[in-house]
Design goal:
The protein is an alpha/beta fold and 252 residues long. It is built from seven helices and eleven strands. The chain is globular and about 45 Å long. The chain starts with a strand and ends in a 7-residue tail after the last strand. 6-phosphogluconic acid binds next to strand 4.
Length: 252
């Protein structure tokens, strides 16, 4: 596993950096296998990245888009991660609808929809224990949660399936399990804002466990992990922690 921690001057710089890394990984995956699989994050931080991706010229027919987690709301609901990514990116580009694989939320039974998406992934990736996404995008909440893997919840211990039901204050969510995320080739955390400092301190500087700070459970089996932070988020991290600061980082 290779791990990069980068602190960028501000959120626009973070998004520019994320765009360069994502574009590079897409190119690599398509050169290697002719297709690229990307799992999207929800929340507010990745939205400007999706807007930037909509401005790129990419081999859209060779991209397959999935979601790492979803709020259990209809696809046209303002809180829907699918809706956010479609408005910011996917509806703006000629990507075939068949290449877009949203998490289902219409069964009125989160367990049933989780099982359905699990089957969708197994059909797409074929029969292998843990499908390996080319890119998994993640955010982090100020409580240290990622995807819909919240502190002290049962979803954190699920190791026998790809998709499980997460829970935020009693509200169900669909989410990738920890082993599925860790099977990815490239995992990118995009974390911005002062309110994230406390959790980052715990994740990078304490022996707090992953049950308390689920983002700590994200360590790819073989892939590359990028923590991209803006200065507001990374301010309290010891300088030596940051493998690279914006100014000195060579291009991958
Ligand atoms: C979601 C996300 C969640 C998000 C964090 C950070 O559906 O909400 O997948 O894990 O990434 O809550 O959210 P912000 O980017 O808005 O801070």
């Amino acid at each position: 596993m290779t791990k990069y921690l980068e602190i960028l001057d501000d959120k626009p710089e973070l998004i520019k950096r994320a765009l360069r890394i994502v574009m590079g990984r897409i190119e690599e995956a398509i050169a290697r296998r002719g297709v690229c699989t990307i799992a999207l994050a929800g929340g507010s931080t990745p939205k400007p990245l999706y807007e930037k991706l909509a401005e790129q010229s990419l081999p859209w027919a060779q991209l397959n888009i999935f979601w790492g987690d979803e709020r259990y709301v209809p696809a046209d609901h303002p809180d829907s991660n699918q809706r956010m990514a479609r408005l910011a990116w996917l509806d703006q580009v000629p990507i075939p609808e068949g290449n877009i694989h949203p998490m289902p939320t219409a069964a009125a039974d989160p367990q049933q929809d989780a099982a359905a998406y699990d089957a969708t992934l197994r059909n797409f990736f074929g029969d292998r224990p843990w499908p390996s996404f080319d890119i998994v995008l993640l955010g982090m909440g100020d409580d240290g949660h990622t995807a819909s893997l919240f502190p002290q919840t049962a979803a954190l211990t699920v190791g026998d399936r790809l998709i499980t039901v997460g829970e935020k204050q009693g509200e169900p969510r669909l989410t990738f399990t920890v082993p599925l995320i860790n099977a990815a080739q490239n995992i990118l955390f995009l974390v911005a804002g002062e309110n994230k400092q406390e959790a980052l301190q715990k994740i990078f500087h304490s022996d707090a466990d992953g049950f308390a700070y689920p983002s700590k459970l994200i360590n790819p089996d073989h892939g590359v992990l990028w923590w991209l932070l803006d200065a507001a988020a990374g301010d309290r991290l010891a300088p030596d922690q940051a493998i690279y600061q914006t100014k000195s980082r060579p291009e991958p």
